[in-house]
Amino acid sequence: MQYQKIGNTDIEISRVILGCGNFGGIGSIPSLFGQGENEEQAHEILDAAVRLGITTFDTADGYGGGRSETYIGNWLNKCDEKVRSNIVLSSKTYNPMFIGDSKGLSKERISKKIDGTLHRLGIKQLDMYLSHEMDNETPLEETLSCFNELQKSGKIRAYGASNIDCEQLEKSISICENLNLNRYEWVQNSMSLLNYSEAEKVLQICSKYGLGFTPYSPLAGGWLTGKYQQGLDYERGSRMTLRPEPYGNFVRHQDSISDGLNSMRKISKERFGNISIAGLSLAWLLSDRRITGIIIGPRKSEHFEPIHEALNTRLNETDRIDLANLFPLL
């Protein structure tokens, strides 16, 4: 495993981060709460992650309506101190936790939600806290000031933003400078070989200001594993059967994606000892040192194998360019 400090903090994270969005639900969708991994299955995945050297877990109060945080907290409670002391926890807030719950990033809401997160995780201080989405109804000044207050009170060590665009990020940095506030330390946006153009723009800003960057969905919801093939039904329980909406653009470009994956297999065989296309996709991200860590969401023990491959594969700049050129800018 590789480790790296995030942003300008002293927080060291594993460069592979365990995403826990399927614990007790499928993301933050209330209609899917109670699905995904049950607590026993979640604990098995957490155990497997630690065996691989993963020290950093990413969750959110909206994942499974709080179940994800609860499962992690219960797992931590049964771990010995040596394991527990090495774990770095990241959580997020914005989405409703139940039907009828509020959403957003107002000071009142964040101040309430952080206490619930700390309680469910069974901790007194959260290492990393993120806004899960941007809130157009709440002034950025209010949200940023609230995160700073949480730092001063000792409830969080650092904060970041997920699903933020270039304009919002630049504005946030400017506000923090003008108000003498601590700024975001990292950004968590979607990025993979199938959608890297917009992420690259944000990544350049992060690099300019010394912020960390931890992309989620590095396998594009499973599309970079090759399991979604034309003419075949989607696997039951997969993202394409439970939550297909984010991947509509991939469906529309399925022919070109299929061609790109076939070319990937050829490159893998010729240059990298025939590792899986999933492993090569992860290695492509990890080979960019501007990326602090990637968030993966394995649902079975065998899903960890591409991570092993990626950590043991080195790409040069020619490899990176060749792989990126295999796919259209979707």
Automatic annotation (TrEMBL):
GO terms for MF: oxidoreductase activity
Keyword Methyltransferase listed: no
Swiss-Prot/TrEMBL keywords: Oxidoreductase
Cellular component terms (Gene Ontology): cytosol
Domain NADP-dependent oxidoreductase: start-end pairs: 35-318
Similarity field: Belongs to the aldo/keto reductase family. Aldo/keto reductase 2 subfamily.
Protein name: NADP-dependent oxidoreductase domain-containing protein
Source organism of this protein record: Didymodactylos carnosus
